[in-house]
Amino acid sequence: MTSLIEAEHLTRILPATVPVTLVRDVSLTVGEREFIAITGPSGSGKSSLLYLLGLLDRPTSGSLRIAGHDTSALDDDALARLRLETLGFVFQFHFLLPEFSVLENVMLPMRKMGRLSSAEMRARAASLLEDLGLAGHLDKRPDQLSGGQRQRVAVARALANDPHMVLADEPTGSLDSKSSEQVFQILRDLVHKRGKTVIAVTHDLDIAARADRRIHLVDGRVVSDERVAQAAG
Ligand SMILES: Nc1ncnc2c1ncn2[C@@H]1O[C@H](COP(=O)(O)OP(=O)(O)OP(=O)(O)O)[C@@H](O)[C@H]1O
Question: Of 30, 168, 170, 173, which has the most beta carbons under 10 Å away?
């Protein structure tokens, strides 16, 4: 199995008068088609670890290979490119651009990548949105949608460039229970139907319980990393 992430002894220390250690000596390997929940108490470093794995931050020490690329050897532009090609993000707050339509929001990462024509970008964005149950909403602005619908647009945007992995930081954290369940099902389908790897930071014990692998952090350290056999369905 190809490793999408190979992290060895990752540590992230924030320089300050009293330095703050966000992530301590984390080593882990992530392969294809994994559905991973990162859990832990508030302040245990879950988001900090996700940002390192998602190339939104750099470690103070340790090594990180993403899709076979040694990230320490890459400058910021190359890192941004690797991020665009291999990773999609879903955050707790959707971060959709309010002045753009739903369709345009999903096209944006494709524009940055610069590989498709306008017509191809439109068709791909529309198809992703339709798959996520948003067919009637392509020309709306994000503020015309419900929270759950906006989060589904954020998932479509994360999939825009057909990444290997989707990283999600509390993806259901601001949703009601029905929308949370929908977003959970969508994330699970990304793994089981589209073959993506999904890593989700979550406080939601129900989601964590139904992930295929749970990584638990305490004080910036991995204290358990367990794979769980799930019943089908
Ligand atoms: N820029 C910063 N400056 C100072 N401290 C920070 C900064 N970013 C994070 N921290 C601290 O580092 C620790 C880890 O933060 P992080 O957000 O990664 O934890 P978390 O497990 O995701 O927390 P939560 O579940 O509350 O979102 C926390 O104690 C946090 O207060």
Answer: 168
pTM: 0.93
**Which protein residue has the closest C-alpha to ligand 1 atom 18?**
45
What atom of ligand 1 comes closest to residue 45's alpha carbon?
18
Task: Sketch the domain layout of the chain as residue ranges.
Answer: 3-227
Q: Which residues on neighbouring strands pair with residue 68, listed in sequence order? A: none
- Nearest one of 215, 211, 218, 191 to 27, comparing CA atoms: 215
Test site for ligand 1: of 12, 18, 20, 202, most ligand atoms within 8 A of the Cβ: 20
Angstrom distances, CA of residue 149 to CA of 130, 145, 153, 157: 12, 6, 6, 12
Fold observed for domain 3-227: Rossmann fold (3.40.50)
The ipTM is: 0.91
In tens, the pLDDT along 160-199 reads: 999 999 999 999 988 899 999 999 999 999 999 999 999 9
* CA 38 to centroid of ligand 1, rounded, Å: 14
What is the C-alpha separation between 90 and 186, in angstroms, rounded?
Answer: 12
Please report the pLDDT score of residue 1 as a whole number. 54
Centre of ligand 1 from the C-alpha of residue 19, in Å: 13
What is the tens place of the pLDDT at every residue in 70-98? 999 999 999 999 999 999 999 988 789 99
The partner residues of 13 in beta bridges, in order of sequence, read 21
